[in-house]
Amino acid sequence: MSRSLGSPSSLKRKRPEKDPTGLVDAERAVLNVIKSKKDLGIWAGDIAKDTNLTVPVIQKSIKSLLTKKLIKEVVNIQNKGKKHYMAVEFEPSKEISGGEWYVNGNLDKEFINVLKQLCLRYMHRQKVATLEGVHNELKKSQVLKFPISSQQVGEILYSLVLDNEIIEVKSTGLGEYHSIPIGTVCYRVASGTGAGKGPRIGAFASIPCGACPRISLCTPDGVISPSTCVYYNKWLNIDF
Amino acid sequence: MVSPHGIQLAVHLISSFYGDLCSKVCECLLRRGTLTLALLIWYTELTKENVIDCLRVLIHQNCVQAFAIEQEGAFDEAPRIVTQYMALFRNIIHKYRAPKFMQIVSEELGNDCLEIFQGLIQHGRLSINQIIDRNEQTAGSSDVHVVRESLSRLLSARFIERCPAPEPFLAPPYEEETPAKRRAKSAKLAGEQTMEQRALAAAAPIDSMRFVMEREMDDISEEKGEESTNSMPLGEKRKQDVLRSDEDVLDANRKKEVLWRVNFEEFVCRLRHKGCTSCVKTRINDEAGIVLSAILELSRHSEAQQKVEKSDYLSINAIYDKVIKKEGGLGMDFDRIRSSLAQLGCQSITTGPHESYSIDINGIIEMAQIEEAESVVLRKYGREAYRIFRLLSKGGRALETYKIAETTFVEKDDILNRKEEKNGVQNQKKEKNGILKVLFSLWKDDYLHKENVTTSAAERSLFCLWKVKEALWEDVLDDMYHAALNLRLRIAHEQDQAKELLQLPREKIVGELEKKYKLLGRVRVILESSLMNLDDAIMLFNEF
């Protein structure tokens, strides 16, 4: 393979140019690509494709940009293993962060549980309440130091419905619904002994077979059988 | 179609009540469907005498029904009448429900009626003379009038009924010479019902005779004639001579007396109403339970079918009158009743001053079924799975993985796991605590149905839709039969283990033995009460 040699001056390695902000060319190119992705962020591998720079140069530029606090590292909920970068002026979009309930790519379970407890406590006091009622109560209570949207409260309430802690009903305008217009969706705790008071354990679930992970292997004369079942022994409190 | 563990449970019940030979015949009928005597002998490899004896026992215990059909002869031979035998799965399963039925009779009608009822539970079918004889043996002496009176009370409560015809003849679906319209109609009707259903309908005594006690004792000969005319559908008397083939063999010693048996339908109906009321009491409140109970009682008398999906439209005044007569309903006014009716989701019609309400009974039963399945999911897979299952069962449609995660507050998984999701594999080495772990465990155990959707070749476009499996209830019911069988086997095992102890005289059971004896009693109570509770759930899925 032949290669034409240029003048000695052209062989000399060019000193990277610096702009007034103190960024070299490569850094600027990387920053521009990252900025162009706005609140979606970009993976280092994709920066290489977009800028045609080599991976070591990109890594060096990223490191430098991070130190200069021009970009930040964000966790992409859909791909936690790949590091994503975003310009500091943007906040991660819902697709990247996972939504309001996620912090650094992890579900903020503690916060969710606190909100659930607050809503539930209010519901037990009120018996019947609308979404607006619960939302207003949370705003008034001043327990939360930051604003919470009505949609977030709705999500929390629906999660309580799924937990069978409360029931979603339509107001009939009668009895305990007297203050709520007829047909309005509202939530209530049950005055019965079952629904709206947490999950009930049914007859099948209360015997060992209902929760047995080996039920498909259990036969009358097999290795796993009701006569020799360890779960039964534990349940019936029989010592062998 | 009976599920595999349902058959196993039925066979176990027959085996423990009537022995292994009967259980072999019964298993053959349950697994292979309706069979002739010759085929039963062939499949069971038993002698003809044994099979006939077993069939006699099983028919007497209402576990098998015989019926005759006309079979076309081969090679231009004349058609011949063949007797078929079919197993009555539900009646077999009712065997272990006897304590529940007896409790209802005892509470409602007292001990005299219970005594007769017990005899029918034990012996399957009895004539009035046999009932009197049995009463004499058990009670020492028996007053015929008291027995007849008790029998009459049992009949008016519909707890017992006249036995069905021993071997009804099933006419071919239609005759060639009938007019085209009738032919089309009868063909349509025949298409709706299986041969077994037609046989049961043909065997059932006509409604006017089903719960009526005749003067059998006074005139047996008159009774004889009456039974032959009442128990056979019209137009079939002429075929009696050909029908007698198997019937003669099976019922050689049978006197032509009216036989009585337990009417399971009535008990199932009562337990259905009881189940609905208790479900509403726990889900809504006691007042709604009282109102529902009143509605069910009011519509009970007009229930032509056993399982009505919706109650009749009942006026608010009638409901009020019934409610105030019920325990705890005295203080209720119209407004409170209306509020309860609204909470129950009743449909209402208002014409002028009259307002009527109807309730969706099936809706309540479905709600109870879902609750039962949900509690299994909670116990087996945890709270997150419970929430996911409830979301999918409430929505009744397929949802995407991330949508499920967002709504139920379960950790989302990243793209690597989503690739596995598409391939339907789970990497055991890689620990996953997110939504996929939960969804996969539910999917693996057949609770959920999974569907992959690809919108383009890019990785981001892999989607997975999840929904509750359509035939889930059949699987849950089969698991319940399995659990009921296991409970019964464990009861038998415990009895067997303590056989020697149980044979000892009571005064010799002291010290360590007494401890063991008490433990055995406690274990038996736990197992038997669990079996009865589990049976309530089984009835919810199978009978209601």
From TrEMBL, chain A:
Start and end residues of each stretch annotated as Disordered: 1-21
Record's keyword terms, sorted: DNA-directed RNA polymerase, Nucleus, Transcription
Subcellular location: Nucleus
Origin: domain of life: Eukaryota
Pfam families: RNA_pol_Rpc34
Compositional bias of kind Polar residues: 1-10
Cellular component terms per the entry's GO annotation: cytoplasm; nucleoplasm; RNA polymerase III complex
One biological process term in Gene Ontology: transcription by RNA polymerase III
Family: Belongs to the eukaryotic RPC34/RPC39 RNA polymerase subunit family.
The protein's name in its UniProt record: RNA polymerase III, subunit C34
The organism of origin for this protein: Handroanthus impetiginosus
Taxonomic lineage from the root: Eukaryota, Viridiplantae, Streptophyta, Embryophyta, Tracheophyta
From TrEMBL, chain B:
Record GO biological process: DNA-templated transcription
Protein name in the entry: DNA-directed RNA polymerase III subunit RPC3
Primary localization class, coarse: nucleus
Residue ranges of domain RNA polymerase III subunit RPC82-related helix-turn-helix in the record: 8-67
Molecular function via GO: single-stranded DNA binding
UniProt subcellular location: Nucleus
InterPro entries in the cross-refs: RNA_pol_III_RPC82-rel_HTH (IPR013197), RNA_pol_III_Rpc82_C (IPR008806), RPC3 (IPR039748), WH-like_DNA-bd_sf (IPR036388)
Keywords for the protein's UniProt record, in alphabetical order: DNA-directed RNA polymerase, Nucleus, Transcription
Pfam families: HTH_9 (PF08221), RNA_pol_Rpc82 (PF05645)
Family membership noted in the UniProt record: Belongs to the eukaryotic RPC3/POLR3C RNA polymerase subunit family.
Location of the region described as Disordered in the Swiss-Prot/TrEMBL record: 170-190, 219-242
GO cellular component: RNA polymerase III complex
Record text on subunit structure and interactions: Component of the RNA polymerase III (Pol III) complex consisting of 17 subunits.
Function in brief: DNA-dependent RNA polymerase catalyzes the transcription of DNA into RNA using the four ribonucleoside triphosphates as substrates. Specific core component of RNA polymerase III which synthesizes small RNAs, such as 5S rRNA and tRNAs.
Organism of derivation: Handroanthus impetiginosus
Positions of the RNA polymerase III Rpc82 C -terminal domain: 150-333
